[in-house]
Design goal:
- The protein starts with a helix and ends with a strand.
- With 573 residues, the chain is an alpha+beta fold.
- About 3% of the residues have low confidence.
- 30% of the residues are buried.
- The strands form 10 sheets. It has a 4-stranded antiparallel β-sheet with strand order 11-34-33-32, with no helix packed on it.
- The longest helix has 57 residues.
């Protein structure tokens, strides 16, 4: 029997109870006969979607409008970042705002979900399984070694007979205590890993359900947890104890019998965040092209640009010298959104970055704060005391790196923050000398053409987790490793064609190359991850390049202070 015919026999029309109703309202979720369809859709104030029974479930569920309960939201207002319906548009409230089809934003969100799911299944989950297996192996080795040492102790004790029984029992007790502590520590860490694996498994299941769902509200509410799982826990390794026998001496039985070496637990922190296949670890080598080329020019009409950061690959945040507004543009130069700074102060040292989740973060030099914008709501994330922030960057682990100078202009440092909590300070090299210049080491003043301080600094994290700072006052790029240990300083490539090196914006690409803007010489320096000069970008008619960023395709975005343009340059094959 045809299953579809069976379905028609079972389901009745909700209005007249006629069996085998062939129609279905995908909005109201009721069965209808053909005669009752007209009656069901007669109320124009309520949305309906009547389809043949076999096509039910294929209708996209738009969210209901919170202001107009009978309407569905088919658009999203970019300015307000909320779903809107046709009646919202008619009201004129969103007349001057940018609008996009809500299905486009949902498709983008689903692509993020798909990527997160793939990363969980292909990379994160197997890595945690590997860690769990390592615990099992360590437990087996611990047990085997414990048995081996117990046998050695027994054999050595037989030579001493009864007079050393107490010593033997004491050593066995010590070994047992050590074994218990080791097992307890291993079990505790193993349980943590298993709980995380369980959470990842649940997350994978939930993501699959979201991907298979047509519920737009469910997809819109999705918040990625991959950043939480991306960095594995410290690897715990137990060094196995050993027994060292001595030549027997009755006068010194206890000392000569031997001892069990007490060894500490060794926890190895992971070198870096787990890489997503097809992203960091497996990126193909992309050499520099012979002649960098300008592929687009975005005119923001905002003279004095001093900050730029990519939002995905289709929009950029920019901020200007002496401005108190941060603006979002698409690649066509259309203004999509404007965010006033929380303090309202006009500053020449406002800089921007975008977190892994797409939130805007900016520094407010005059107000001593670092702020985050979530769904158009601005929150103060970090409030500094005695220090003023120059630049900020979001790291691969979700931390923030902030380069700052003290109020008295005598010190400069980099702070790492997890949320609002300072977790690291980078200020001095191994012999106690300052890594970064300050007002006390530079001539205090401002650069001609801009209110930028001679002490201005920009910051970026490289893919190898190095922290790279462009120090305008020191005429140098200073690079330290993740632990804050000095690696190298770059002070420009000697040439008669260029003047004094004065770096501003700094960024890194997928190949761990370092790019920095040379403001007075109107060019870009490209270095390898060890500070070796590779080439200039000086053929694209740059006019006072102030800040840099790269998108996921390694296109270079350059904010020009003099023109207000953001130039997009291809420099890799």
């Amino acid at each position: 029997m045809d299953p579809r015919a069976w379905v028609k026999d079972v389901f009745q029309c909700r209005l007249c109870e006629t069996p085998g109703s062939p129609m279905y309202c995908d909005i109201c979720h009721i069965h209808l006969c053909k005669a009752c369809v007209g009656e069901h859709i007669s109320d124009p104030s309520i949305e309906h979607k009547v389809v043949p029974l076999e096509n039910r479930g294929f209708t996209t569920y738009y969210p209901k409008c919170p202001k107009h309960s009978t309407k569905q939201c088919e658009l999203r207002c970019e300015q307000c970042d909320i779903p809107i319906c046709s009646q919202c548009i008619s009201s004129g409230e969103h007349e001057q705002h940018g609008k996009v089809d809500i299905l486009e934003s949902i498709e983008h969100k689903k692509s993020i979900i798909q990527r997160d799911l793939q990363e969980l299944e292909k990379t994160i989950y197997p890595k945690y399984q590997e860690i769990a297996y390592n615990f099992q192996m360590q437990k087996a080795d611990l047990n085997k070694n414990t048995q081996k040492l117990t046998t050695a102790i027994d054999k050595h004790g037989e030579a001493l007979h009864r007079e050393i029984d107490t010593i033997i029992q004491k050593l066995k007790y010590d070994l047992g205590e050590m074994d218990s502590k080791h097992l307890a520590v291993l079990k505790k860490e193993e349980d943590k890993i298993k709980r995380t694996i369980s959470e990842i498994t649940q997350c994978i299941t939930a993501l699959k359900e979201v991907l298979n769902s047509n519920d737009v509200s469910l997809v819109s509410a999705y918040k990625s947890r991959n950043a939480q799982f991306r960095r594995p826990p410290p690897r715990l390794t137990i060094s196995l104890p050993s027994f060292t026998p001595h030549k027997l001496n009755k006068e010194q039985l206890f000392q000569q019998f031997g001892f069990i070496s007490k060894v500490p637990f060794k926890t190895e922190k992971p070198v870096c965040t787990m890489n997503f296949p097809g992203a960091e670890s497996s990126l193909p080598d992309r050499p520099l092209i012979d002649e960098p080329r300008l592929i687009a020019n975005i005119n923001t009409e905002q003279i004095g640009l001093c900050g730029v950061s990519c939002l995905r690959d289709d929009k950029i945040w920019v901020c200007g010298d002496g401005e108190n507004t941060i603006r979002l543009y698409d690649l066509g130069g259309n203004l999509a959104k404007s965010i006033p700074t929380k303090s309202g102060n006009k500053s020449s040292e406002t800089h921007v970055t975008v977190t892994m989740s797409g939130d805007l973060v900016y520094t407010d030099f005059s107000n001593r704060t670092v702020n985050i914008v979530k769904n158009t709501q601005t929150q103060t994330l970090i409030r500094l005391r005695g220090w003023k922030p120059y630049d900020v960057c979001s790291t691969s682990t979700g931390d923030l790196l902030v380069v700052m100078e003290s109020d008295d202009m005598r010190q400069a440092k980099v702070g790492r923050y997890s949320g609002s909590t300072a977790v690291q300070s980078i200020q001095f090299n191994d012999i106690g000398q300052p890594l970064y210049s300050s007002g006390s080491s530079n001539s205090v003043g401002f650069v001609k053409e801009t209110a930028m301080s001679y002490n201005s600094k920009y910051i970026s994290e490289n893919r190898n987790l190095d922290v790279c700072v462009s120090d305008f006052g020191a005429c140098a790029v200073v690079v330290v490793n993740q632990a804050g240990k000095f690696r190298f300083t770059y002070t420009g490539f000697p040439t008669t064609m260029k003047g004094q090196f004065r770096p501003c914006g700094i960024t890194t690409d997928s190949q761990s190359r370092i790019l920095t803007a040379d403001f007075p010489n109107q060019c870009i320096h490209i270095l390898d991850q060890d500070g070796q000069f590779l080439r200039y970008i000086d053929n694209c008619h740059l006019q006072r390049p102030k800040d840099l960023c790269v998108d996921t395709r390694d296109n270079l975005f350059i904010a020009e202070f003099k023109t207000g343009n953001v130039k997009i340059i291809q420099y890799l094959m």
